[in-house]
Design a protein that fits this description.
Helix content is about 5%, strand content about 45%. With about 400 residues, it is mostly beta strands. The protein starts with 6 loop residues before the first strand and ends with a strand.
Length: about 400
């Protein structure tokens, strides 16, 4: 029922190094078909479609979505918005390679952005929409990393590293930098700092693999003890000079994420263990807002709600269950909720929404929706329309 950023431990169990790795990879990686690279039919010809007639009223044009038509074998996933009305998606070819396609969701205009020679495992657009990281996999134990300028299509960086799984985090402060964690088959790992402007991939010595940005020059992580069973742990801050320090040693968390100026941390509510405390901190790690919501238990874990933060508007969207329960037996409904981080006000955007990942555009009026981002969620109406129509 739940996937992507979803599995966090809720009750005390014994965790070995491998189970911590599996749990955090499942939690932090959004994988939509990344392990399967189906074969597609002949490469679809890119044809520019004429724009909508100018005689249409603006409100109709703004609301119009022209779906992408693909076979199931062709369609891997939509990656994200490059601007408010353009998306990028991965299309699989009949020779097991993959391409990146840009698509204007109202006019139906397609453009080939990147023609791959190998399967594309995943791709991620930089926060400013200028670059895209492309992760291809020639073999199961190697990863090719490419950084492409989306405007010029110039490949700015390319490197092959040993890897069984990859995680990557664009810096929200300097869009030329990324943290990349490469996991090996034996659950060991290596953390890198990629500087695009210097074309440098630098290995870092960090005691935790699941890294988030705290500011331009330092990072944070949950300080898991890999050899001991834990459901929550304190936070550790890493500095660029190699030093580290504990943050809020009296507080423990099971999940964190960060954006420009905001850090979100989740912890089990101490008065009611069927609920989660959602805490927003500023960059200095001062608490700004705190909310308590129901959570869902899975086998030895809890489910992290689906969410996205629109940085341009300081608005946080998330999908919450209306009551606590077990994932496998939960029959309750979900709500789409928006939090205005400027004043802390919450508002329900849509009742009875399916529980699925979301990724919103900078304008804050549309979100990609679904486990492959195959739908468009319109925030002004709550309507969910198909972005991709799949056929045999």
């Amino acid at each position: 029922m739940l996937g992507g950023r979803e599995k966090v431990i809720v009750k005390k169990i014994h965790i070995r190094l491998s189970s911590v790795f599996i749990f955090m990879i499942t939690l932090l990686l959004f994988v939509s078909g990344c392990q399967n690279h189906p074969i597609s039919s002949m490469h679809e010809k890119m044809i520019d479609k004429p724009p909508l007639k100018k005689s249409f009223p603006k409100e109709i044009i703004d609301d119009f979505i022209k779906p992408i038509s693909l076979t199931e074998k062709q369609f891997q996933s939509v990656i994200g918005f490059t601007n408010d009305r353009k998306v990028i998606y991965i299309q699989n070819n009949d020779d097991t390679s993959s391409d990146l396609i840009s698509y204007q969701i109202q006019e139906g205009e397609k453009k080939l952005l990147f023609e791959g020679n190998d399967p594309i495992v995943n791709a991620e657009i930089s926060p400013n929409g200028e670059y895209i990281l492309i992760h291809t996999s020639p073999t199961f134990d190697k990863a090719d990393l490419l950084i492409m300028n989306l405007k010029t299509k110039e490949i700015l960086f390319e490197e092959t590293i040993p890897s069984y799984e990859l995680m990557y985090e664009w810096s929200p402060y300097n869009h030329n930098e990324l943290i990349i964690t490469s996991f090996y088959e034996d659950f060991s790992y290596q953390v890198y700092l990629l500087d695009i402007s210097r074309k440098e991939l630098k290995a870092l010595s960090l005691s935790q693999p699941f890294i988030k940005w705290k500011s331009e020059g330092d990072w944070i992580a949950i300080n898991w003890e890999m050899d001991n069973p834990e459901t929550e742990a304190s936070l550790i801050q890493f500095f660029s000079d190699g030093s580290s320090t504990t943050i809020h040693s009296d507080r423990q968390y099971y999940y964190i994420d960060s954006w420009n100026g905001w850090i979100m941390a989740l912890s089990i509510n101490k008065q009611d263990v069927t609920k989660t405390d959602v805490i927003f901190y500023n960059q200095e790690f001062e608490q700004v807002y705190k909310y308590t919501i129901p959570h869902l238990n899975a086998y030895s874990s809890i489910a992290v709600f689906h969410y996205d933060l629109v940085e341009a508007k300081d608005t946080f969207y998330y999908i919450r269950p209306k009551e606590s329960g077990e994932v496998d037996t939960y029959t309750g409904s979900f709500q789409l909720v928006v939090v205005d981080l400027k004043n802390g006000e919450e508002k329900i955007v849509k009742e009875d929404i399916p529980n699925a990942p979301i990724s919103c555009n900078n304008d804050g009026d549309m979100c990609l929706f679904g486990y492959r981002f195959e739908q468009i969620l319109k925030l002004n109406t709550g309507d969910i329309d198909p972005l991709v129509t799949v056929h045999e």
